[in-house]
Amino acid sequence: MLVSSDHLNISQRIIQEYELDAMVEYHPALAMAELCLLTKELKNKQAWKDNREMANLIIIHPHTFAGADEMCRAVRKHLPEVNIIELKNGKLALTTPHEHALDVLEEPPIIVSDTIDANELNMLLDIPISREDEQ
After folding, report:
1. Which of 8, 64, 71, 74 is 20 to 30 A from 100 (CA-CA)?
2. pLDDT (average), residues 104-116
3. Residues contacting residue 85 through CB under 8 Å, at least 6 positions apart
4. pTM above 0.70?
5. Taking the domains of the chain in order of start, what are their residue ranges?
6. CA distances from 63 to 3, 25, 59, 99 (A)
7. 70: helix, coil or strand?
8. How far apart are CA 125 and CA 135, in angstroms?
């Protein structure tokens, strides 16, 4: 659970209300490190089982953290099996990958290139030019 020290009482209430077995971290980098360790531990413990426990990342007031969005993107990229849950309107809600994606969308670059002939292409690809091609 990622929570600022200002909202520690909220995290304790959520842990009790939902009967969670949670670790509380106050910095996104530490939360990510603990999440990686927990995920690895769960995979090792359940290597031969059909049903797997899932790790969850609960973020209390994510707007209070610098780097929380970057951490969520990193979790989705490197730990896609982890659910990211945020406190919204007093309730825990599962976030979808697309909620944060809209913030990072940019226009794709437009690439304009001049036409090149076979000799230029061969030179760029470092292919020797045969005598017949030169004529």
Report:
1. 8
2. 63
3. 56, 57, 58, 59, 92, 93, 94, 95
4. no
5. 5-109
6. 11, 15, 10, 14
7. helix
8. 20
